[in-house]
Amino acid sequence: MSKTRPLLLTASALALLASAASAAERVTVPLTAGWRFVQGDPEGAETPALDDSRWATVSVPHDWAIAGPFDVKARAGGAGGFLPTGVAWYRRTLDLRPTPGRRVFVELDGVMERSGVWINGHHLGHRPSGYVGLRYDVTDFLRADGPNVLAVRADTSFAPSSRWYAGSGLVGKVRLIETGDLHVEQGGVFVSTPTIAKDRAVAKVEVDLTNSGAADTRVGLEIVVTDPDGKVVARQGVPAVTVGVARTETLSAEVALPSPRLWDLASPNLYQAAVRVVGADGQVLDSDVVPFGVREARFEAGTGFWLNGKNIKLKGVALHADGGALGAAVPIAVWRQRFTALKAVGANAVRTAHNPPSPQVLDLADQMGLVVMDELFDQWNVAKTPGDYHLFFGDWHRRDARDMLRRDRNHPSVVIWSAGNEIHDTAYPVQAKAALKSLLDVMHATDPTRPVTMGLFRPNVTGDYDNGLADMLDVVGQNYRENELTAAHEVRPTRKIIGTENSHARASWIAVRDYAPYAGMFLWTGVDYLGEADRSGWPNIDNPAGLLDRTGAVKVSGMQRAGWWAEQPVIHVVRNAAPAAPPPSNDGAGPAPALPTMIAVATPRPKIDIADDWTPADLSPHPETIEVYSNCPTVEVMLNGKALGAKPLPADGSPRQWAVTFTPGEVVASCGAAGPRDTLRTAGPAARLLLSTDDKAVGSTFDDLAIVRAQVVDAKGVIVPASSAAITFAVSGSGRFVAADNAAPTDHTPFASPTRQAWRGKATAFLRGSGSGGAVTVQASAPGLKPAVLTLPVARP
User: Fold this and answer.
1) CA quadruple 649, 653, 655, 656: dihedral, nearest 10
2) Which end of the chain is more exposed for a tag (fewer CB within 10 A), N or C?
């Protein structure tokens, strides 16, 4: 079985890799700490002899650009959040030696972008995309007398090369892998479940084996499958075959699984297939372990999406890859908090807009039971920004698509691929259809088990429904304009359809909800993200289109979405100071123009005055509207103990409103006497700080973070929404401060600063444990306010 061990010292790596020669198992060594880093492009940076002692020392994953500063003159402009771009180098010494009969690979999950990789001055390769996973064989260039120097160049100097903030540097994880000369290819194990019944399922296991040795070799396979509890449920061998030198052969087996436990939204059961490559002498030459799920997912033309025999409406959100204050190198703790919050408001699906995410994000979707639309490209041959992927599509799209699908195809959460988003090639149908056919050929060959869609861009303008392009897709996807996609289905009812990108407008949801063939929708967007502020302009640094803000806190738009999407009873009461002017799509509930994301999301909007507080700036009597988001059949509201009357649930789920004259005090909304309730209270003067967290403990690895939220409250603990107090976070004990944020779209304070002004009375700190055990304490203080202290235990690894 594959072994993964933490790298503590370079000597540890040497010992691990040396021992592998006798153990003959695959050994995986994370390359996390001890990287030398410089922002710039020094001559000879790839050579072992370069003196890098004055370079900074960093750990990876690492996004150097998130440190800032924000600059109105930044080359990436608002598209990149006004953050810096450029060339940077990373170097790491590898204290290992070549071993006869063994291969050593370096794997990188993502380098942003236009990467080059060297070992001891030898150029291993380059890749323009920052989202594809890389693997290079370094065996033939290792020095027996050591040490060996790995160097990586990352180049984002051609900005803007994206329409949103994408980070800069070694944003993904890096590892060394040692195998035998006869080894499993990168992404070379593919597990599918073509047969599923109540008492028995069949897992089809296909393994690509490559012989990098000097002689033809006979090898077979041993496959062991364990169930979600870790119990062995199947063992099977595959007879040996001969794999020629420099050849790749595919071995396969069908493994019976008794009484299968299905992967589902509520029960995301995961199996594991452990594959051993066994030589003629019985020695294990390589091994790999692949998690997979037993599940049947399909799209039907007349009824939409089905999972394990159940018809499900996909209630999805599009997500960019940044983590707000953490940049593009995002710890899994951040995604876990976001996914938890999105599921709480009723989301059951995510779309990776507009490139594949890190493999760890898909691992999390597998574990938490979220359906995924995995998207490959934002551009084909026609540009959206001058330096984007259109420069490389012709040369690289087939290889990138293959590698991306091979990396992600074992994830049960992934139910559909997207070949592209709002691709501007469609204005040139001959070119567009040729490009799409090229992609489909690769995608269907690499994964014949899943359908392919794309987010069509104004298809009625470019004739996609008439010229044949739309019907090349397994599932027809369109961004916005739900009525157009419905009409296209009515014209040809055999089309399977899905909303690949949709507005927050209630009408968009109703169009999908009430039309059975519509498989579902993906809101733009699930979480506020850095960048795409070029139309709103400086001082804005982000796009506030999410159900959650940059810190992962639920916004008013998320509260309303819960009333439409959540399965459990929900109720949220807010103050709407402008009920006669419904908000546009990305800020709330009201009608919105059916515009593509490039226009609709990024265009400046009128100020929307909907707040989850009962503390307007004017505390004198004036007209206010109490607005309630709820899926309860009946909602009752009281103001200062006075009943304002009950209102039933409208058929379209629109908010229920009560016009009142403002009076300080308390608003209570409830779903009847026994149902849930929500309360707003008028705040007094700011008196103290309050700290809270959903985390029970915090670990010390890159993926571990505690998210601590600070609120400015009055003497009774009511949040003071107008407060902009400067909150300073001080961390002591077995931990350290990582970053702070307040979700404000115009705050240019560096995220690494421990002092952050409250926005709407709130700020958030991210902290990480250090060491094993003990406790970490965070104190929040602000001038004139009583400080707050919170202590968390540090988890032992």
Assistant:
1) -10
2) C
Q: Are strands 115-119 and 122-127 parallel, antiparallel or unpaired?
A: antiparallel
Q: Are 637 and 644 in contact (CB under 8 A)?
A: yes
Cα dihedral 550, 551, 552, 555, rounded to 10, equals -70
Beta bridge partners of 122: 119
Beta bridge partners of 175: 30, 107
Round to whole Å and give the CA distance between 366 and 347: 15
Minimal CA–CA distance to 530: which of 706, 273, 743?
743
Q: Which three-class secondary structure state does DSSP give residue 430?
A: helix
Q: Torsion angle, CA of 768/771/776/780, rounded to 10 degrees?
A: -40
Supply φ then ψ for residue 786, to 5 degrees. Answer: -70, 130
DSSP code of residue 727: E
User: H or E element: which one contains 337?
Assistant: helix 332-344
Burial of 466 (0-12, 13-18, 19+ CB in 10 A): middle
CA-to-CA distance for 277 and 25, rounded, in angstroms?
9
Number of H helices, E strands in the chain: 10, 47
CB 238 within 8 A of CB 221: yes
pLDDT digits (tens, 9 = 90+) for 148-170: 999 999 999 999 999 999 999 99
Four-point Cα dihedral 71, 74, 79, 84, nearest 10: -90
Q: Is the pTM of this model over 0.85?
A: yes
H or E stretch covering 175:
strand 174-180
d(CA 265, CA 724): 40
How far is C-alpha 294 from the chain's CA centre? 23
Phi and psi based region of residue 293 (left: phi greater than 0; alpha: psi -120 to 50; beta: remaining): beta
User: 230: which residues sit within 8 A by CB, 6+ positions away?
Assistant: none
CA–CA distance, 525 with 607 (Å, rounded to integer): 19
- In angstroms, the CA 211 to CA 188 distance is 13
Sign of the alpha-carbon dihedral angle for 324, 318, 514, 599: positive
Q: Which of 751, 752, 790, 792 is nearest to 769 (CA)?
A: 792
For the chain, the straight-line distance linking the first and the last C-alpha, in angstroms and rounded, comes to 21
Least confident of 3-12, 283-292, 303-312, 417-426: 3-12
The phi and psi torsions of 326 (rounded to 5 degrees) equal: -90, -5
Q: List Cβ neighbours of 226 (8 Å cut-off, separation of 6 or more).
A: 232, 233, 271, 272, 274
User: Do the bridges between strand 3-4 and strand 27-30 make them parallel or antiparallel, or are there none, so unpaired?
Assistant: parallel
The string of pLDDT tens digits covering residues 365-383 is: 999 999 999 999 999 999 9
